[in-house]
Specification:
Length: 445
């Protein structure tokens, strides 16, 4: 389906300014400063609940249970962890830092899964000590390290094995057999995944719960999920046939596509839930055996469209193009430090003049940051009114995922605050960095 990249409560008022969560963006900027990440709480939580509701219902039709783990790498702070707990989701974390924030937010440890291709001893120790529900093992080294560590702590480590199924999807494409030349998981094709399952099964201090896979990002193809479920369930059946042991958990990962620009395609969770549950049911019929407990891990599809970034416009330049015509360069007070996705992935975004409306002719524009890189681009190509000027506010849509969580302090930038808005009120989720913070991290001679 096609979607809007803006969150549900974004509106343009009669005076032309945008509002979100019932608050005028000019007031938000005045109160919290810019750049500013704004999270539409109602939208974020509605998306989370939609995933949970649609997927639970679709799997329940087949008599099966399903959990949704919010992939917190998309964006995490303790209040968001609290929302996810209240809304009945679990949490996927991928570092000690994410684990600590999740715990601070009140997410029960048994509803947390720990990921990572090179987890450190302190991360594994803390995860075991607090009693996380699952550790997703990613290598034979980790099988040994975790078994030994759990033994030394007198504990059993609950584990899933991360499987590279050979299905790769993303960027609107799906490849049934992808290259395996990447760092995550254990290969199904080479037999490494099966071998790792045996190793976990035989390890005295590991409690083997099941298998996990994650096939990519920005996935629009249900067929990709169907194919990966098929391969995962075949592996599960093979393991049970060899050992007689049941694997009660199968996690199919995240990757649900969102719209970054107006009218772009996204994967509707309601449709995806039914299609994936039906696909899994037909695979289960082929393979027989008991249904496992399924889980998925959407990140971007919950956090992405719920967030926008507000910037203050500084310098505006007209630059001549070699092919004729000109481009309006609109420099804002942030850039690649608060949103590295454009420079990293060539990501596309929608932007709009947010503090007023304009009757001026639209001009081919590029929104750029204030950093010392010519690639410091926030939005590569967008039509903005030709009279955009210093002091205007610009809003960039769908920056809620992998924005603040990937932000850097390049040029000693101060990372922006994140505020949640809801029903006419705003609340700081993450405060802005300050010069005092920067000087604090710096150790003078
Ligand atoms: C293991 C795992 N699960 C879930 C996700 C979330 O993906 P997305 O935000 O595209 O839904 C990721 C993203 O990298 C991941 O690595």
């Amino acid at each position: 389906m096609t979607s809007s990249p803006w969150s549900q409560t974004v509106e343009r008022g009669s005076d032309g300014a945008l509002s979100v969560g019932g608050l005028d963006v000019r007031d938000l900027a005045a109160e919290h400063g810019t750049p500013l990440y704004v999270v539409d709480e109602a939208d974020f939580r509605a998306r989370a609940s939609a995933f949970r509701g649609h997927f639970s219902a679709a799997f329940q039709r087949h008599g099966a249970q399903m959990d949704v783990f919010y992939a917190s790498k998309a964006f995490l702070c303790s209040q968001v962890a609290g929302w996810m707990h209240e809304d009945g989701l679990s949490l996927d974390v991928a570092s000690l830092g994410e684990l600590e924030v999740a715990l601070r937010g009140g997410m029960p440890a048994h509803r947390i899964g720990l990921h990572g291709n090179n987890k450190q001893i302190d991360e594994l120790t803390r995860a075991l000590e607090v009693g996380v529900g699952r550790i997703i093992v990613d290598s034979f080294t980790e099988v040994d390290v975790l078994n030994e560590l759990a033994g030394s702590l007198g504990l059993q480590a609950p584990v899933l094995v991360r499987v590279t199924t050979g299905v790769h999807a993303g960027g609107h494409e799906y490849i049934a057999t992808s290259h395996e030349d990447q760092k995550f998981g254990l290969s199904l094709a080479t037999g490494a995944a099966l071998e790792a399952l045996h190793a976990c099964h035989d390890a005295p201090h590991l409690n083997l719960l099941g298998i996990h896979t994650h096939i990519g990002s920005q996935i629009l193809s249900i067929d990709a999920f169907r194919e990966s479920a098929d391969r995962m369930l075949r592996l599960r059946a093979q393991f049970t046939a060899a050992t007689g042991a049941d694997l009660p958990e199968v996690d199919l990962g995240g990757g649900y596509a969102i719209a970054y620009t107006e009218g772009a395609e996204s994967l509707d969770p309601a449709d995806a839930a039914v299609a994936i549950a039906d696909a899994v049911a037909s695979v289960m019929e082929d393979h027989g055996g008991t249904w496992p407990h399924f889980s998925i891990e959407p990140g971007r599809a919950i956090a992405g469209p719920a967030g926008m970034t507000l910037y203050n416009v500084g310098v505006v330049k007209q630059v001549s193009l070699d092919e004729g015509g000109s481009r309006q360069y609109v420099a804002v007070d942030g850039g690649m430090s608060d949103n590295p996705r454009t420079i990293m992935y060539g990501a596309e975004y929608a932007a709009t003049l947010a503090s007023r409306s304009s009757e001026a002719e639209p001009a081919l524009s590029r929104v750029v940051g204030k950093h010392c890189e010519s690639g410091d681009i926030v939005v590569r190509d967008v039509d903005l009114p030709g009279d955009v000027a210093r002091g205007d506010l610009l809003a960039v849509a769908a920056t809620g995922a992998y924005g603040r969580s990937m932000a850097s302090t390049y040029n000693n930038a101060l990372r922006p605050a994140v505020v949640a808005v809801r029903d006419g009120r705003s609340r700081v989720l993450v405060r802005r960095d300050t010069i005092a913070d920067l000087l604090d991290w710096d150790v003078p001679a």
